TrEMBL record:
<dbReference type="InterPro" id="IPR032675">
    <property type="entry name" value="LRR_dom_sf"/>
</dbReference>
<dbReference type="InterPro" id="IPR053139">
    <property type="entry name" value="Surface_bspA-like"/>
</dbReference>
<dbReference type="InterPro" id="IPR026906">
    <property type="entry name" value="LRR_5"/>
</dbReference>
<dbReference type="Pfam" id="PF13306">
    <property type="entry name" value="LRR_5"/>
</dbReference>
<protein>
    <submittedName>
        <fullName>Uncharacterized protein</fullName>
    </submittedName>
</protein>
<feature type="region of interest" description="Disordered">
    <location>
        <begin position="36"/>
        <end position="55"/>
    </location>
</feature>
<feature type="compositionally biased region" description="Acidic residues">
    <location>
        <begin position="43"/>
        <end position="55"/>
    </location>
</feature>
Length: 341
């Protein structure tokens, strides 16, 4: 770990690193990072010539100041100045009264759990220049209402915005190729999402249980929709799978009870097990000719599904459907019971 570019610090016993007041500072660390770097606990007066009073220690010679806040007792607004490069892991974790933060354009790395559990954080500004948003960075920020992910972000960590229950708007401007697992899971107020063409994969549970998600735009370029990606998005009424997508994962859209239209385009090769299970509003589906794998129970309990069109013709029908009894050769009718097996 590189040393912070400062000579003076104010450290409050039992606190967490939360803010810097100068442009000299380059990194924010949690308490554990100070111990790891110096090899001893900086809350003691070891190797200092300054006074110790009420648990505070001042290091000598320099105007640069780091502030350490005890969890839940930090100021409401945090001003982080230009020049800061890294906000370390857990830097503001559980700062319960923090309501607003502006991440400077010089910050390139936002560490894991940096703002985890900041339950009153309503506004965060992420500026161009940011490259990495770590896992759980804003998880359980239950008051956060919107987020604009800059174009410069190349990595969006797992569960980065998980359980942000008041998050209604997400702008993804391009950058990360993979939206990692559970990134927006349980964002129960999220109404719409549009994926940029730079996104090629959705990992598992990306938007799982976003129960108010009514509109999803999946752009060309996307290749994989992972397991449980949109499971239990109960307000979703239609979905169009781009021709670039080759795989729909296990339970990708299961329990989306209001999906009445699912447009699957040529290019799709694999429809995973239970991919559309319990999509009870779905009445018709067309299977592209490019599909070579239609897995078990893909449309299980789609109780209103009355029409399935196979663009692949006899090859797919004979190999996958007649053998499993999904159709009657004599009548050509869908056997709902066999479909559920």
């Amino acid at each position: 770990m590189s040393a912070p570019a400062h000579k003076k610090a104010k450290i409050s016993s039992g606190g967490r690193l939360a803010a810097t007041t100068t442009t000299q500072a380059r990194e924010l660390f949690p308490m554990s990072a100070w111990q790891d770097y110096r090899g001893h606990d900086d809350t003691s007066d070891e190797e200092t010539d300054d006074y110790v009073e009420s648990g505070d220690v001042d290091y000598d010679d320099g105007p640069e100041v780091f502030l350490l806040y005890e969890g839940g007792r930090s100021q409401r607004t945090s001003e982080l100045n230009e020049g800061l490069l890294t906000i370390g892991e857990e830097a503001f974790e559980y700062c319960a009264v923090l309501s607003r933060v502006n991440i400077p354009s010089t910050v390139t790395n936002l560490g894991s759990c940096a703002f985890f559990g900041c339950t009153n954080l309503t506004e965060v500004m992420l500026n161009e220049g940011l490259q990495i948003i770590g896992g759980n960075a804003f998880s359980r920020c239950q008051s956060l209402r919107s987020v604009n992910v800059p174009l410069t972000v190349k990595e969006l960590g797992a569960q980065a915005f998980c359980s942000c229950t008041n998050l209604t708007e997400v702008l993804l401007n391009g950058g990360p190729q993979t939206i990692k697992e559970m990134t927006f899971e349980l964002c129960t107020s999220l109404r719409s999402v549009s994926l940029p063409s730079t996104t090629i994969a959705l990992d598992k549970q990306t938007f799982c249980e976003c129960t108010n998600l009514a509109s999803v735009k999946l752009n060309d370029g996307l290749q994989t929709i992972g397991d449980w990606a949109f499971e239990s998005c109960t307000e979703l009424r239609s979905v169009t799978i781009p021709s670039s997508v080759i795989r729909l994962g296990y339970r990708a859209f299961s329990d989306c009870g209001n999906i009445a239209e699912a447009l699957l385009n040529e290019g799709l090769q694999s429809i995973g097990r239970r991919a559309f299970q319990n999509c009870s509003a779905l009445q018709s589906v067309t299977i592209p000719s490019t599909v070579t794998e239609l897995s078990q129970s893909a449309f299980q309990d789609c109780s209103n599904l009355t029409e399935v069109i196979f663009l692949g013709g006899k090859r797919l029908l004979e190999q996958e459907f007649f053998a499993r009894g999904l159709f009657s050769r004599e009548c050509g009718l869908l056997d709902q019971g066999a479909l559920n097996e």
